[in-house]
Amino acid sequence: MTDLLLPADFFGFQSLLSDDEQKELLALREFLESEIKPHVNAAWASAEFPHDLIPKFAEADIVGRSYDWEGRPRASRLYTGFQAMELSRVDPSMATFLGVHNGLAMGSIMILGSEEQRQRWIPSMMQMQTIGAFGLTEPEGGSDVARGMRTTARRDGDSWVLNGAKRWIGNGTFADVVVVFARDEADDQVKTFVVEKGTPGFTATKIEDKFALRTVQNADLTFTDCRIPAENKLEDGNTFKDVNKVLKVTRGGVAWSGVGCQLGAYEVAVAYAKERHQFGKAIGSFQLIQDLLARMLGNVTASLGMTVRLSQLQETDELRDDQAALAKSYVTARGRETVGWARELFGGNGIVLDFDVVRYFNDAEALYSYEGTREMNTLIVGRSITGMSAFV
């Protein structure tokens, strides 16, 4: 199956997939190249979400592959990792849209919801008839949101009443359901709720003038005496430790997206190096250009190796929080280097959207920051190394 490998998969990690998985991955790659890639630059430039592509994603049957569901067993963790990589290789914005819907929102319901709650929301989310979002980060609470969460929940008869605000919520402007975390006034514990679009007291406002992942519709959410049914509290979402059960899984997905972003930048850089001529020959024949390409490929290969091992540990339920944190922080940091070198190779053309690389360059900044900043993830790793916490 070596003919299916991407040239940037220098050590052939994709060959660890089964033959059927590799064929399925190739079909996904062809779908993304033909159906999605032609639209990504226009969507990124306009900062508008291409809603007409949602049915295409539904038809491609790529949602929910991480979960066992009726009539369809889950795919291997390694395959779903490569799936996230392929999505981000074409467009980190669309990979983020799907990661929020498929990983964070659906994942919260699958992991923390009761069977009745899963049956209520998951089937339509699988079909992408219901789109999900994930409301954790707050205007004054990013890295310290676990202790500093200000959004509150109060039980009132057969309802919960939410008050507060969330920020940077991907898919937030158009999501049909938003998984929202709020501190219970009764016991000071963080509980998990599902708020449906149109609920009185709930508003979503698009964050404008964003220069990374521009296609992703990030929103400010506000909750003003927002009353939701008691059955919309996820049954097993009762502390922040429960939130971390979701984040440990999705943090690995961000690492895979970081690999894909690097891959996309590397591939357009290689193509440009072969076709761009200066001083009478292709710039790919110059030593300094080859040095840049070799450094990029080294980052891609190291990052891919780390994420492959991460998925193998997930498969056997051995992945630890500190391992997921190291993968996310390392891969996205190397991603910043890789896209920077790619942009450098393009010279002035590197800041023109027509050449794609500026999109990867900007999007890498968002991947570097969300799902835990590099600094916070390194503190998780540092605590594991030393046995001492350096958190404030």
Structure characterization notes:
With 392 residues, the protein is an alpha+beta fold. It has three domains: 11-126, Acyl-CoA dehydrogenase/oxidase, N-terminal domain (Butyryl-Coa Dehydrogenase, subunit A, domain 1, Orthogonal Bundle); 132-232, Beta Barrel (Butyryl-CoA Dehydrogenase, subunit A, domain 2); 240-386, Up-down Bundle (Butyryl-CoA Dehydrogenase, subunit A, domain 3), CATH 1.20.140. It contains eleven helices and nine strands. The chain has helices at residues 19-46, 54-59, 77-90, 92-112, 115-126, 145-148, 240-275, 287-315, 321-345, 357-369, 374-386; strands at residues 132-135, 152-156, 159-169, 177-184, 190-196, 202-206, 219-229, 277-278, 281-282. The strands form two sheets. Strands 1, 2, 3, 4, 5, 6 and 7 form a seven-stranded mixed sheet that branches. The protein has a two-stranded antiparallel ribbon with strand order 8-9. Helix 8 (287-315) packs antiparallel against helix 9 (321-345). The longest helix is centred in the middle third of the chain and has 36 residues, at 240-275. The mean pLDDT is 94. Residues 241-385 form the Acyl-CoA dehydrogenase/oxidase C-terminal domain. Belongs to the acyl-CoA dehydrogenase family. It holds the Pfam family Acyl-CoA_dh_N. Residues 133-226 form the Acyl-CoA oxidase/dehydrogenase middle domain.
